[in-house]
Amino acid sequence: MTGFSVDWLTLRETADGRARHAGLNRQAISLLKNRDHELTIVDLGTGRGSNVRYLAPILGGIQFWQLVDADEGLLRSAIIAIGEWAQKQGWSVNQDGKRIAIDAPKGRWTVTTELADLDQNLDHLRLDDADLVTASAFLDLVSESWVDRFAARVASSHPLCLFTLSYNGDLVFDPVDADDSWVADLLNQHQGTNKGFGAALGPRAAGYLKDAMANRGYEVVTGDSPWHLDDQSHAEEAELQRVLLSNWVIALKQWQPQHGSRLESWLDRRMAFLESGFSTLRIGHEDLLCWVDDETSLPH
Ligand SMILES: C[S@@+](CC[C@H](N)C(=O)[O-])C[C@H]1O[C@@H](n2cnc3c(N)ncnc32)[C@H](O)[C@@H]1O
Question: Which of 66, 135, 186, 277 would disulfide-bridge 44, Cβ 3.0–4.6 Å?
Fold first, then answer.
């Protein structure tokens, strides 16, 4: 168990899809399009497999996905969710335990799962054949040393890397409450606590990976992919705000119980904005794509 629930990952998937930086994701796809073999894709911290549902149809062709997570229940739900999604599109689905094969008009995709703690097992992960190593909403959990190990790990086979939706510390509440910036500061400090990989990079994650990969000779591009949670335009976004605000306060109260009553009062005021139908929340994320353009330019 890593503490991420199926319900939470289901709730956020649509907002995540809307938020991803379209240009950068298109660029990743065009860099992969000219490969004339089955594409091997490794998804780190896959959760319910949202990356498969986002990328597989736009990539097309023959793909082999390896979904990695430390949470066995999430991996089971990923296979179920991918099967249900494919069936809903009218595509042919064959499931055999932890492996699922999908025949779609745009391609054939085989998806397998691997239960692994990515802190303990990064060095044992099969990345050498990977065309693409990807992750969404995962990078901000890891530490500096994990990124250093990751950059060293991919240095010999240099797959494309696409890390999307890394939290960048930017939080904007509307309407404004006097305690918003106090809570935002606390949250950004909490983002740096240990999430299973040592002190987490939190808001610094995309910047740190960018430098690590650039130092290894990779070309790196980043793009903003914020959530604009607006309870007026999309039905699920009010619920997303409600769950997010409540979960923040639960986590912050556990971490700094002395602030419990001030946090509860802030939550009550923010929930009142939400119930009145006027609450917007902008949460900054970054997408990062990196690839090797010219292998002869790589440092030795
Ligand atoms: C915020 S969720 C993102 C899930 C999914 N990528 C998505 O975008 O919906 C973070 C994921 O990282 C996984 N995770 C956290 N720590 C991990 C670890 N040490 N090893 C492997 N996976 C881990 C969690 O189980 C969870 O599925």
Answer: 135
